[in-house]
Design a protein that fits this description.
By secondary structure, this protein is mainly β. It has one helix and 15 strands. Strand 7 and strand 8 form a beta hairpin. 32% of the residues are buried. The model is unreliable at 6-21 (pLDDT under 50).
Length: 257
């Protein structure tokens, strides 16, 4: 049973009656996750297509379908199931072309909306996740890789919102287990009742050179509400060093029930 079928089945089993709540708060399209959760009895599906291109030692192009399922188990807690979905990678080096296809690993997580915004105090969310070695051979990681991230969101004048997300993760390589840092900083601007834009600095991995080094990118994106329960989005990313894909582009859809 593939990842798409798992998500479809979970969504069908967990959907409930619509609630009179505010508009959808999606984690997409930026790297910094929302400090808010979906709410008890809610189910939210966030899916997308992502194209990454890298012209480092060779040429590499990867197409994936990152997908996140969020299930509200209480007003302040949600369960999360996340995967890179279907993945296709094409590489060309020294005139030799190679292609790989399969599915990415799946991560299981729990998010907690710890604090509401009040005065100068930000809205705070805590996100705990564990990525599992569950994907296809070409895209599978090693063992269980846990991570912890904390998001703070401040409402600023002029319809601006500042989000900051530090964190820490554990991964494995041929030398064994190691820790790496996580940091994301995003500034969002409301451009109307339905449209918002964003700029972001994302460092999904801050590691020593022997563990692959630091990945860093600059993102520009936008999200548009088709209704209070449906959002579409797009984002363009530019890698800031040789360890990060040169260019990435994503389009996505988020639906809440």
């Amino acid at each position: 049973m593939n990842h798409a079928a798992i998500f479809a089945a979970a969504l069908a089993l967990c959907t409930g009656a619509a609630h009179a709540q505010d508009s959808i708060q999606a984690d997409r399209p930026d790297f910094v996750e929302s400090s808010k959760v979906v709410g008890k009895g809610r189910v939210q599906l966030e899916t997308s297509a992502l194209l990454e291109r890298d012209h480092g030692e060779g040429r590499e192009r990867t197409l994936s379908t990152p997908t996140l399922l969020r299930i509200g188990i209480a007003e302040a807690f949600e369960l999360r199931v996340e995967t890179d979905g279907r993945m296709v990678r094409h590489r060309s080096e020294d005139g030799v072309r190679m292609s790989e296809a399969g599915y990415g690993d799946t991560a299981l997580g729990l998010s907690w909306h710890a604090l509401d915004a009040e005065g100068s105090r930000p809205s705070v969310g805590v996100h705990l996740a564990a990525e599992l070695a569950s994907g296809s051979r070409a895209f599978r990681g090693e063992g269980v890789r846990p991570s912890l991230r904390v998001t703070g969101e401040w409402d600023l004048p002029n319809e601006l919102t500042l989000g900051v997300m530090p964190g820490i993760g554990v991964d494995r390589d041929e030398t064994g287990r190691y820790r790496y840092g996580i940091l994301g900083i995003v500034l969002e601007k409301e451009l109307g009742e339905r449209l918002k834009g964003l700029v972001e600095l994302a460092l999904p991995r801050i590691a020593r050179g022997r563990h692959g080094g630091t990945e860093a990118r600059f993102d520009v994106g936008a999200a548009y509400l088709l209704s209070k329960d449906v959002q579409v989005d797009a984002m363009l990313s530019r890698g800031l060093n040789s360890r990060t894909p040169d260019i990435a582009f994503t389009i996505g859809l988020s639906i809440r029930r």
